[in-house]
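User: Predict the structure for this protein chain, please.
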Amino acid sequence: MGDDIEALPAGIVTESSVEAICLVRVAAAVAALDETAVRKEMKAAHNRVDPAFVEEVILQSYLFAGFPRALNAARIWRTFSREAAAATLEQADDIAGWRENGKRTCETVYGSAYEKLRTNIRELHPLLDDWMITEGYGKVLSRPQLSLKLRELCIVAACAASGQQRQLHSHLRGALNAGVSPDAVERTLDALSDLISADRLVSYKLLFARVKRGGSDVH
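Assistant: Here is the predicted structure, written as structure tokens:
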């Protein structure tokens, strides 16, 4: 499956390097590839990765790929993992809690660019700003079932595969802000070498080199 990715603590679980590679490839396939490719990556992940990890990647994929792809991915995954998913929406009506968690998580990801991000998104539409924080960073990306480090690597993979370069720029930096090592980010990109074109992979590596030098970009 390629080179090792650093072990990333997830609070209640710890991912191994093989699990991390499997998950970023699943994230990329769900975001941008056809169902045959999604099935191939899920088959590779099955019996190598805790099913709960794969399901977290699928759940968060609706933020980056939309509900149709998330639903199709969940349907494919159920052909491999037939156990009913655990109900993990504790405090499902705690909107205020989601909002506060979302602020903290988003600020971790964006660091010193957090306030600028919030201003930019509010100017696009105030509801987009509220939903980004409450729904995206709060309800979904603050869930403890998967570490923020590994979530960010999966977001990098999804944005890379789907060609969302502006968001990729933000989340390459976000992964570093969340504590992922530069080597782990680079190995995540390398893990996609057969899923995206060589030209795009080169451009993404150049983009990451710019991020490491301090180049900034906020949505």
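Confidence is low (pLDDT under 50) at residues 1-16.
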